[in-house]
Amino acid sequence: MWFNRAAFLIRNRATPLFQQLKNNCFRTNNSGGRFLSNAAAYNVSGGSSYMRGAVFWEPNKPLTFEDFHMPRPKLNEILIKTKACGVCHSDLHVIKGELPFASPCVVGHEITGEVVEHGPLTESKIVQRFPVGAHVVGAFIMPCGSCFFCSRGQDDLCEDFFAYNRAKGTLYDGETRLFLRSNGKPVYMYSMGGLAEYCVVPAHALAILPDTLPYTESAIIGCAVFTAYGAMAHAAEVRPGDAIAVIGAGGVGSSCLQIARAFGASVIIAVDIQDDKLENAKALGATHTINSRNEDPAKKIKELTGGRGVDVAVEALGRPQTFNQCVQSVRDGGKAVMIGLTLSGAKGEIDINHLVRRQIKVIGSYGGRARQDLPKLIKLAESGIFNIKAAVSRTCQFEEADQAYKDLNEGSIRGRAVVEIM
Ligand SMILES: [Zn+2]
Ligand SMILES: [Zn+2]
């Protein structure tokens, strides 16, 4: 659409050969030796000095495709050749200006890819775990690995991630890795800035993707599945036999259904306003569905659970109305888990006396814990317990990314869309 691929190829072919050789062939590895790297790893558009990325400039303007200098990884960071990137509502909140974020920026935070290069002086254990050429998946919450929370194993609260990435759009030295080819100006990164041909990811956010799992569908492990797992495992602490309701059956909500099924929930109720999403929900584990356009979901959930309400209700939309529904749907002593982001500053209302007397627990959850959870999620996907193919309802090409966000905004993506960046 905005990008002229042919022109790009010509420009890249014009890169001087010695420059390409320098960039492609000799990379210093971390044990200090030099090795011939796999030139195939750098074959995107015929050159390695530059790359393309999808840039968000200002709210409600289309993403544009821009040329960047090849990003450089720093200490304990890894340069990834991006293979696929999921289309998530959090990016859409940024694109619509609902969540303030540094701009211009590259959105996209749900990736798979191939390891290309390690930052200088990166720990040898990291280099061994993620050798050049390895397939990896990246979590959107990228733990620094050593802050107060990371050292307690709570990667999902990493101080550096929130202080630098979410607050400033940078990595943890306060700088972005993305600079425009045309004028060298910095472009910020939403997580790793995954909607680009290459991205730099802190190594603690990565896990090895086995050859048995495809790049495209596996991308959703890094946000949709990761977020669902964090909500179910850490916030709700779901037990076998629990009754669970999930309000909002989009990408993350439908992943919650699959995780609930994996955890042995006995009753799994999906709530949405679109019948096609509810139909899909049944295939992903829902034992009951409620179209909240036609029925009061809290009332119906009580009816389905002998008048008590569910042990765990999850709100995956981020709306004040569904926040209330979520709280009203849980049994006495039950857990209402909130995972839907919303307009910055939005408030939810709670009946205080009900909360106090009936011991309702309202719990926020943003995602999983990359280092401990990602390898487990990969196992769940590999064994088929979590069906990643069924969770991805559409794939599209890099150039179609902007349209994919428009479709997501209109509610016309049933499960998850994934952009292929090959
Ligand atoms: Zn996401
Ligand atoms: Zn940390």
UniProtKB/TrEMBL annotation:
Keywords: Metal-binding, NAD, Oxidoreductase, Zinc. SUPFAM superfamilies: GroES-like, NAD(P)-binding Rossmann-fold domains. SMART domains: PKS_ER. The keyword NAD applies. Its cofactor is Zn(2+). The keyword Transferase does not apply. Residues 58-419 form the Enoyl reductase (ER) domain. GO terms for molecular function: metal ion binding; oxidoreductase activity. Coiled coil: none annotated. It comes from the Eukaryota. Gene3D superfamilies: Medium-chain alcohol dehydrogenases, catalytic domain (3.90.180.10), NAD(P)-binding Rossmann-like Domain (3.40.50.720). Belongs to the zinc-containing alcohol dehydrogenase family. PANTHER family: GROES-LIKE ZINC-BINDING ALCOHOL DEHYDROGENASE FAMILY PROTEIN, NAD-DEPENDENT ALCOHOL DEHYDROGENASE. This is Dehydrogenase. It comes from Lithospermum erythrorhizon.
